[in-house]
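Hi both,

Apologies for the delay on this - the queue was longer than expected. I finally got the zinc ion-bound model through. Below you'll find the protein sequence and the ligand SMILES exactly as submitted, and right after that the structure tokens for the full complex including the ligand.
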Amino acid sequence: MNSKYDEKDFSACFGDLDRRVYTSRLLGQDKSLILHGGGNTSVKTTQKNAFGEDEEILLVKGSGWDLEKIEPEGFSPVKLAHLKRLATLPALPDPAMVNEMVTHMTRASAPVPSVEAILHAILPFKYVDHTHADALLTVSNSVDGEKRIRAIYGDLVVVIPYVMPGFDLARACAKEFVLQSHPGTIGMVLLNHGIFSFGDTARESYERMIALVGRAEDYLRAQGAWDIQIPSHISPDAACGLELAALRKELSSVAGFPVVMARHTDSKSLAFTNREDLATVAQQGPATPDHVIRTKRVPLVGRDVAEYARRYRAYFEQYEPLARERKSMLDAAPRVVLDPSTGTWSKPN
Ligand SMILES: [Zn+2]
């Protein structure tokens, strides 16, 4: 994994926010680091308030913005002292947390701050970068993930056990960071979730992210878990127009709206759908909640859309009562179809 940082491009950025935008876009350009809409970044800065007083502000990625194309107005300015104080509360329901963040912004038209804003606030560094990097998650989600993470990073990073994103996670990080960090700490791994890097400059924080994720990639290479073997008998050219039309009709009927499907015939996709253990490896759930937004929890293997919909409804009915707030079920149609005979199909966004 290489840094995309370019001194010439960076020198055209003036001020904390422009620099924050520049390296945020670099992170967003790499799909192995950040998927559309995922990850978040921040910078701590000082602004003058209406009384001419200096005020510490956290500029954090706002909801609805994608890092690859983020603009300065995509960052929400939130009063830093208030965010840090919130982290000391023993408990705060997530809707109340969002309300506290929104009511302590200094620009009324700014987007709702990232749900991870308090986490950014409590890290004592000017620039903070957060990704759900593929390589990091691959290691963390493996058997003995924590042991492997500690072997890769030693004491370079603080390690946090899995907590669902929201106030409870921010509070757990605030507590653990104080206990585990030292002057050599350059990152924080959230097991089964992602990784944070931080630094005094935009470049330092970004390049620490690249270096940390690069270590996870090197580890996977050393374990023989990097290169994909592509069987030679797979043909990407098999015609399947009728199959696609039938599948699209059935998916649209279950979804309740017209669905467009795209077929993927690149060698990696074909190799994956032809794995003998496809039905097992493809049904383990997503590596990160980021994926769920686009793919649902699991893809359909084969073409039995009705059975997929039945299982999706049963899954919702089983787990919805366990949620803290009531949830509404989405349509029951899959977003990704893995069919060994015709390949990978997905609903374009
Ligand atoms: Zn995250």
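Main takeaway for now: Residues 116, 130, 132, 165, 193-194 surround zinc ion (CB under 6 Å).

I'll put the files on the shared drive as well.

H.
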